[in-house]
Amino acid sequence: MPIPEERLTELPIACSLPPGEQVPRVDRWRALAARYLLDEEATAEGVRLRYRLEPEAVSELEDLARLERDCCGWADWRVERTDDAVVLEVTAEGDGAAAVRSMFGLDSAEAPGSMTRGS
User: Fold this and answer.
1) H or E segment at 57?
2) Disulfide-capable partner of 29 in 54, 70, 90, 115 (CB 3.0 to 4.6 Å)?
3) Alpha-carbon distance 17 to 68, whole Å?
């Protein structure tokens, strides 16, 4: 059975980061969260995380979001500054939204290996 044309442009829900780079990347996310995370929430499309509005946090968050766009391009990684925080919104369609929530430990089943929580 042929694949419908609209599905040909969909990216698979998978991370293309080489295995040797995964642990250091997760460690960076966890360090950022430990030092700067204000709050986090699951959304219908993914997650919304607020970090303290400090230059080091903004720089690291922007760098990590840029890196994630390269390896997890099936999700949309947006960083925005507000008056009192720097906000990361990660969204995806369909099953991707659940995958995003799981990556950050904000799914219904606690994910101890998430990017913002230690194991």
Assistant:
1) helix 55-71
2) 115
3) 9
Where exactly are the structural domains of the chain?
Answer: 20-103
Q: What's the pTM? A: 0.81
Q: How do residues 45-91 score in pLDDT, each as one tens digit?
A: 999 999 999 999 999 999 999 999 998 899 999 999 999 999 999 99
Q: Which of 67, 62, 73 is nearest to 100 (CA)?
A: 73
What is the DSSP annotation of 68-105? HHHH-TTSEEEEEE-SSEEEEEEE-STHHHHHHHHHTT
The three-class DSSP label of residue 39 is strand
